[in-house]
Every structure is written in C-alpha cells, then in structure tokens.
Amino acid sequence: MDTLLVRLKPHDPRRGFVLRRYTYRGIKFHDERGWYRVEKVVADYLRGIRQVAGDDHSPPAFDVCTGDEAKALDTREKEGAVPRAAATDDIKVSEARSEGAVTTDDLPEAATASDAPKPTGRKNRKE
Asked: Which residue range is the domain that position 33 belongs to?
C-alpha cells in the first residue's frame, strides 16, 4: 500500500490559510495535530482542496509530501522561525527619548463644531 504524508496548513489568515479542520472519508484533519499518513488516493484528492471552496485562486489547504519532503519542510520551518526573547535573557534597556519627542500636549487644539464649515449638498438645500 502506497502512502503519503498530508497536513492541513497552519492557520494564518494573513496568508489566506483560514481552514482549521477538514473531514474527508471519516478522517478529521486538524491543523494543530500536524502530519497524517494516508493512502495515495486520499492524498491525491486532498492535493486539490483549496482554502476557500469554489475559489480556484485561494491557496491549497493541504501540504502533501513524501516522508523525506515532510522532514525537509519541518526543518525549514524550524530554521525560519524567529526566536523571541525570553524573560530570563539578558535584554538591554529600551530608553525613551526625552528631548525632541512630540506628545499630544504639543498638538494644536481641535476645531470646535462652530468653526467647521457649513455642510453643502442636496440634503441641506432649501427649496
């Protein structure tokens, strides 16, 4: 039996990855779980599924790979992840500017309603 690894792409609306779960032939795919090993027939079907049903321009919903391709993809994602600073790390102080910084106190007063120009247009026209 020939198998492939598939996973629902991680949820990222900015990139168009909006699906969080998908069910096909009794298999429930969740984006949090990661990779699923499925038969080639199922993998071929999932390769054609899009993030938005009926929209041929939306990105694919699944990554469909062999075992080696999946390992390489995982490695690439781990290397590409930006490490965040932890509270225990030695973090330098971010100093605020004291001179030359504009604050809300430096802005002019807001215009009042009486200073605003009278609205013109059809609604305000007298007949």
From this structure: 3-80
